[in-house]
């Protein structure tokens, strides 16, 4: 019975991986502008961009299947753009054959994902010096990576001791900060002063970054007319907020593409590590890149924020709170990062699913 169940799942996974053509993706899902942005930022041609979205969609479904099959031996998973497959780490080598039959690329690893998450949780409960810029479960390295300013590795000693053999220290030139200098997006203004970006429309308002405002702060829209107020906000620790809008504003499923047709959000299925991702923000517009890691803790000067997703997409001050999408699936809202869109950088976003769950909100979809 178990063998038949596994075979059935393999057939399902195979069907998902082969029945959606690149042409169908381009026609029925992501817009031509979205594909063009992927071509620009990921170095792909039109067919490669459509094919990658097809592969990533299949990988997102397969990831749920293989994680359940691997059970306690699950060591993490990520999308490998070079092969178009989902790579699955597993501590039990006996499960590799079946994982391969399911359509995944198995890799035997030393540490279980549950152990890595537990080690990271210990770091989340710790005080970190300013020389430490963040930490996250590094799925590809099968370790808890701690990032420190260049030449300051000793500053991470106490955190390394807590994480033990699961820790990996990496020096960086990054200096993460909140994108709060000028607030942008499909712009909204806080107390007629600061400016941030709308993340995604939800029932009764929209979600955005928590560092943009506090409960009770007044919000005006892009046209400077009254829009509503911050109903809930969490920062630091988290970086998300819910703005309740007034009756003059209507929620839509659109995301500003800045120069192209609006992207219409159709859902909020979380993409895998390694998947392509695009961001919208008022300062720098529309940019794309890849998901590098999930559940990262970033140690901002204003306080640590956990549960963020790390990307190699650029951003600049004023992009705070803006939308992140993978295809037409909502992913999160901009928190902060380092670098800029001239030389490149690292940007973190707060996953939208956590925001929806925390506040009991429903995403507006089209």
From TrEMBL:
GO terms (molecular function) for this protein are: peptidase activity
Span of domain Peptidase S1A alpha-lytic prodomain? 113-166
Ranges that cross the membrane: none
Which stretch is the leader sequence?
A: 1-26
Pfam families annotated for this entry?
Answer: Pro_Al_protease
Q: CDD domains, from UniProt?
A: alphaLP-like
Q: Return the similarity comment.
A: Belongs to the peptidase S1 family.
Q: Tell me what this protein is called.
A: Serine protease
Per UniProt, the keywords (alphabetical) are: Disulfide bond, Hydrolase, Protease, Serine protease, Signal, Zymogen
BP GO annotations: proteolysis
**Which superkingdom is the protein from?**
Bacteria
């Amino acid at each position: 019975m178990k063998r038949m169940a596994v075979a059935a799942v393999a057939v399902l996974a195979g069907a998902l991986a082969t029945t959606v053509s690149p042409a169908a993706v381009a026609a029925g899902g992501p817009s031509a502008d979205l594909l063009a942005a992927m071509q620009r930022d990921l170095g792909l041609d039109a067919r490669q961009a459509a094919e990658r979205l097809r592969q990533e969609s299949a990988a997102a479904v397969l990831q749920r299947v293989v994680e359940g099959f691997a059970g306690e031996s699950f060591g993490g998973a990520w999308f490998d753009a070079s092969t178009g497959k989902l790579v699955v780490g597993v501590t039990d080598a006996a499960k590799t054959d079946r994982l391969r039959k399911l359509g995944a690329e198995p890799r035997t690893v030393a540490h279980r994902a549950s152990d890595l998450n537990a080690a990271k949780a210990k770091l989340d409960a710790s005080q970190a010096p300013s020389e430490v810029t963040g930490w996250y479960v590094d799925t590809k390295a099968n370790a808890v990576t701690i990032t420190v300013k260049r030449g300051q590795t000793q500053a991470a000693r106490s955190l390394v001791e807590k994480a033990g053999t699961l820790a990996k220290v990496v020096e960086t030139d990054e200096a993460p900060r909140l994108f709060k200098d000028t607030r942008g997006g499909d712009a909204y203004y806080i107390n007629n002063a600061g400016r941030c970006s709308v993340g995604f429309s939800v029932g009764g308002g929209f979600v955005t970054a928590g560092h943009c405002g506090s409960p009770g702060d007044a919000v005006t829209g892009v046209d400077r007319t009254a829009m509503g107020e911050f109903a809930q906000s969490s920062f630091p620790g988290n970086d998300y907020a819910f703005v309740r809008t007034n009756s003059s504003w209507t929620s839509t499923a659109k995301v500003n593409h800045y120069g192209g047709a609006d992207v219409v959000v159709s859902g909020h299925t979380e993409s895998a590590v390694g998947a392509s991702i695009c961001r919208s923000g008022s300062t720098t517009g529309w940019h794309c890149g890849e998901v590098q890691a999930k559940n990262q803790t970033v140690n901002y000067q204003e306080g640590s924020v956990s549960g963020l997703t790390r990307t190699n997409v650029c951003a600049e001050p004023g992009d705070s709170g803006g939308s992140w999408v993978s295809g037409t699936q909502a992913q999160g809202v901009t928190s902060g990062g380092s670098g800029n869109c001239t030389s490149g950088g690292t940007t973190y976003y707060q996953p939208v699913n956590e925001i929806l769950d925390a506040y009991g909100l429903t995403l507006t979809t089209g």
